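Instructor's aside before we start: the two examples that follow are unrelated to each other. I chose them only because their records fit on one page, so don't look for a connection. First example below.
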Amino acid sequence: MPKTDQRILALDLGTSSARALVLTADASPVPGALARHKISPAYGAAGEATLDLHGYVEGLLGCLDELQQNGHLTGISDIVLSSQWHSIVALDGSGEPLTPVIPWVDTQTVPLSLDSSFDEHAFHARTGAWLHRLYWTRRIPWLASIVPAASYAGLPDLVLERLTGERVTSVSIASGTGTLDLASGRYDEEALAVAGVTEKHLPPIVPTGWTSSLSPEYARRWPGLVGVPVHPPTGDGAASNVGTGAHDESTAAVTVGTSAAVRVVHPIEGAPELPWELWRYRVDDKRAVTGMAFSAAGNLHAWLTDVLRLEGEHREPVGVEVGSTRVIAIPFQAGTRPPETVPSASGVYFGLSFDDTGADLLAASLQGASLEIDRGLRMLDSLFGHQLEVVLGGGGIDASAWWRRCLTATFARSTTACSEPEVGARGAAAVALGLFPTPGGETSAPHKDDLDRVAELRPRYQTLRALAVQASHELPHNAELP
């Protein structure tokens, strides 16, 4: 079969859905060749968030069954995976799960007792992570206080093991645990000591070029996939950047889904010194991704339109100009990501009056989220020494033309929209197979009047944001560990 006729099977392991889809040889989705399993995390009042591992994996396998039933699992040349970062499962001595999947949104933790000589700034520069509950340096001590585990693994590691029989991880997924020495691509000794484990308790790290194949059980179940190489998973943030077409240090990708992020992919060799405010993970053996993430984005839009019962055209801020609303929204409903320690339930609206409408509140919220993302973009501009080009991607971008215009004005530069919605799957294929996708969408320049209004709004937002941060730490109901 000619290479151009070959197809790629991509598995995308998200927090709200697990998907299996088929891509062409250049990583474009094959029309109709997508199956989705909805994921519903379970939440608790003490900050718990869990995913049912068995249900998750069986749902994903069902997606493959659906693709086969519809004739889409033929001519597959490669199997690639994109996965959420930061998940963890505690395992017993036989490799059986002792806990559900703990995803990034879980806020449970325990305090650490560290030697006074510990230098978190040096640790952050080396691992790209902080000692935050998001990472295994904090997750493992918390889990160890609950269950006597023999080892730990992430969701993508266990999915890969289920498919191939081999429990390994990639340098990209390992970097999201906060236990990787970014420069060497090996587990960091100090991070392991903080977590209270050794390398033998964690999945071995395999190089980007490693492949395996389906176990005999699944080779019988999906005959068209017999002998097809299965590639190591790529963290969803890294995959999304590459999938939008932002695969070098000239371009930042802004992706807006449930949460949001701004990131730049660059070589790990000679990487600029990492500022304290930014994180850094690995894309593959040769590249890293540096950026900032934000907890309020598409979830903010979905929440507010539901609360205000905004439907149809009113799911956009109809009649409100970008930057014009007098209401200032600080989008801390889900708190902030590290190194800031603003807890959840800290969202604030300033300047409300009786003549404000649902459209005003929605515009203020989207504007606030845009200004948050802009903080990260400007830090990346400074880090890489030039104004970065910007590619916009993700479901939130696709859903709101007003938000795209708002982001473009807030960034004060032209932006290019990625025309492909499945950027994670596309990026996983690109990383595994050495492809370089392009955005493919329209480029928009900021409107002058929008620029002027946002420039006037910005200092007010920054002042009120500082007040919201201060208040979040002074209110007693928000007293939680970072």
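Example two begins here.
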Amino acid sequence: MKTLALAFVAAFLLCSNAAAAIKINSHQAKNMDDVMSLGVIYINHNFATEQEAEVAINDDADQHGAKYYHSILMREPGSNGNMHVSAEIYR
């Protein structure tokens, strides 16, 4: 019984501390009073899908302590549709 209770408490603490950055658009960023830009992050990988790119941007934004991010997906000509990503991050 104690093991189950400890596992529940540990799971609750892990879930409550995991706060992922929230994706916003540029219009939202301009209209939010409490948002401050932290700069732009770049990820130099080729991503085949937008979902892969968004996961990578979200993870990187979290590592920089950002609360919000606005992703920018760029496709390079002649790259078979692969994407490079960057995002403006906000606190």
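Residues 11 and 17 are 10 Å apart (CA to CA).
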